[in-house]
Queue: 3 jobs
Job 1
Amino acid sequence: MTETASAELSKSLRSRHITMISIGGIIGAGLFVGSSAAIATVGPAVILSYLLAGLVVLMVMRMLSEMAMASPGLGSFTEYIRLGLGDWAGFVSGWLYWYFWVVVVAIEAIAGAALLHEWIDLPVWQIGLILMVLLTAVNLMSARSYGEFEFWFSSIKVAAIIVFIMIAGAYAFGLTSPTESTFGNLQAHSGFAPFGWLSVLAGMTTVVFSLCGAEIATVAAAESSESTRVVSRMTSTIIVRILLFYVLSVLLIVSVVPWTEIRSGSSPFALALTRVSVPGAGTIMNLIVLTAVLSCLNSGVYVTSRVLFTLAARGDAPQSMVALNRRRVPARAILIGSSFGYFAVVLSILSPEVIFAFLVNASGALMIFVYLLACFAHLKLRRRIEQTAPERLTVKVWLFPWLSWATIAAMFGVLAAMALTRALASQFYASLVCAAVVLLAYWMRRRSEAPAVLHTSVGP
């Protein structure tokens, strides 16, 4: 049934899969629905929040690309953190990243079930279980099946945004509006930055999390026969995607609809389409949001299994997680990663809203912690490679080390803003507790290994 622990994952993902996985990784419900909270708290200046957050993510991805090109074939991007900072960093980043996506799987399962509940007369928890079973089965079939589903999920999301930009753009420029250009909405209601320019920085605290996910492609690239080239191509075009999918779409939203009419928790895309008189805008956006949720759920199940597989291969997780089935898929790692989703869905019987809020708080700032470790690993690896093998630096971070340090400073600024923002403080401190628990686990593991090492190294 299973292969040996030394078996390798399949190389069944194609270039088109990796490309769409990287695009789909940054287009989720955080854009289609979560952007409403950022717009409501920042105003039209939220465009700058998205641009700044996008530049931070771009820099992190550029660092990952540099490390991947210089030291190809390591698998999950957390292994570059291990290479740069040591085993402790690989252990901590790997488990934090795994836990983050385990929580995301549970969040997306409940969110998807809540959306489908509007059309299907079943309890939310039952719909959630059905979604979990379906997408777990997709991932158990093969990496290729995951890639195909994600390819089409991402294609739908990309097509939806392009169509939205065309429709909203025509209206904003006055081509289809009953009067004239609507770009005056950017200044008409208390100015472009109604809450002051500092709100632009504060807005980054919520915006940056909706941009997380681009790094999924670096995990999936390990199962592609052209992994290094694909990762390089993906990072070189990410800024275009950020500008097109986030900045441009949000710019058109606050141009078509006065920002004062946008309420947190609702879809600003649906509101903009309604303003443009697109029939059935609400239903259309619900279907697109559902696609985004299922895409994220599909990727979450995939990522948790591959990260757990990598941790096990390094001895940081039970060796049974390395075993592959006949389709060269880490089935046990998939089932372990998805089990938390099943548990959360069943718990949602008590109160879907309470469980959902708890899960959001539980994920908090974990990705910022992981990104910070990646940045520090890059700084150390870059200097090491420059001294030993500078010819391996075929992809380089711009203006090194100044932009690298600026990226680190920006992320520390986001964390500080979270700690000082009442609505986000609980997420920040919950994430600190998670990080402390993982560090403690690593310390206990090292302590338990020490006597064994001492015993074997000292003769009779």
Note: Residues 1-6, 453-460 have pLDDT under 50 and may be disordered.
Job 2
Amino acid sequence: MTIKRDPYDILGVSKNASGTEIKKAYRQKALEYHPDRNKAADAEDKFKEVNEAYEILSDPQKKQAYDQFGHSAFDPSSGGPFSRSGQASGPYRYTYYTSGSPADFSFDFSDPFDIFETFFGSANPFRSGPQKPHYSIKVSFLDAALGAEKTILHQGKQYKIKVPAGASDGTRIRFSDFDVSFNVEPHHQFQRDGYDIFIDYPISLTTAVLGGQIQVPSLEGDHISLKIRPGTQPGSVIRLSGKGVKHLNSARHGDFYVKLRISIPKKLNRRQKILFQELAQTLK
């Protein structure tokens, strides 16, 4: 960690800024100082500084350590909780956003200058030496969320690669001889936003009106029993705290959100129609 200035000042946020505010400020600063957009002599240094500031403030543990100990938390000579002499403080993720036709794009990188190789299709102008081989591994949604082990073939030899729990599309791991990134396939039920999981779950009209129990699938393959309150409205959301995806660099987990979708019967028999008509009269 080479940062010397206050990371809050670098990103232009207050100490009470939310994670969303910090992320928004980071995006703006990263775009402002990206060397491909900003030709100033100090653009590269400021771009690195912005990324290091975000690395601290986007990680709750590192942010707490900085708030308590300042820069000494990352200084090897001070023995701070995040100091590791002779090692980089990564891995950490960078996101490059651009607006334009025909659509907006976002890319995640473990190194800010991988942008040149992935987005611009050219070699990193700030990196010297031969390029290491890079392998892209296709992994399932659940393997990325829960962790798994994959095998690749490099120069005639097999290597076992651990997919860390919490990996997302584009997560990159660096080894001494090669780099590996993950291409995460979508899931037919679950959707992911960061470390949070979302699922649309249908319930019957009678369950929504009268209440009841439902069994919702979980990431681990079992089912979660949830109580539905009488009078549940369409679009109601149940939040299960800590049941989402594990954070890459901590033991914390995201949340699991169940959005209830009420299934309306498309066809009714004669008896059912009569009952609904009687119900309609009572509700008047």
Note: Residues 19-33 form the longest helix (15 residues).
Job 3
Amino acid sequence: MLRTTVLAGVLLMTAAAHAQTEPTGAYVDVNGMQMYYEVSGEGDPLVVLHGAYMNIPSMGEIIPRLAETHKIYAIEFQGHGRTEDIDRPITYPNLADDAAAFMDAVGIEKADVFGYSMGAAAGLQLAIRHPEKVDQLIGASIAYDVTGWQPAFREFIPTMSAEMFAGGPMEAEWQKLAPNKDGFIDLVEKLIALEKEPMAWENDVRALQAPVLIIAGDADVSTLEHSVSMFRLLGGGVMGDMGQPLPASRLAILPATSHTAVINQVDLLYGFIEPYLQGKTPAGFMGQ
């Protein structure tokens, strides 16, 4: 969930993203702000939550790919993309409550949820705080505790400053869609504060009602051990072929994949996500 300088590479690849069908964009009032969202595709609803410093286009081709089989509701969080910033901290509970309020505003009673990076943590909090709204959760580059970050990232967090981001390519990319072109530094300060927000959600994860597909790169910002730990909290890691159904939650590790490369592995992501959402599991050679 490295939501800082390394995301510049993702943001600069926005122009390469394209949709197979033109999405419909609109605004809706959510917790005192005008939130922008786009709807595309047909089928069961799937709410898509982007990472920090990102927007709908910078999520790349996974959105139009998922729109082939689902009705996608992709939102832009507070201060991101075309959604205005407001005088309020950006916290995971706030982001989760915004997603819940969005679903209420557009008439979605319950949906599957796919989040990446910051959006994955927001999706996890959505499932914790509003369990009635989440059918199945997909968390790409997700963590439930600050101790799950790679040591290098945990050491980097205290050194972050807004000046690191000022005047660079991330600001220029952000300004293309932002309602307030002068608000970038304010957003950066809020997102730096988010990095320092305590995360200790083990008991909440253990009590989750919704299954979770955990997706991580093998060189992600969260450690492999943390991804496995989360999978076990959700009942995963048991031996199959013993006559019992597999746990509903799943774990997928992308090889040779850093944090910012996770969202660009469209074929692999879709190959993991679609069978999970359909409840399909590979058949063993003994037919179990």
Note: The chain is about 35% helix and 20% strand.
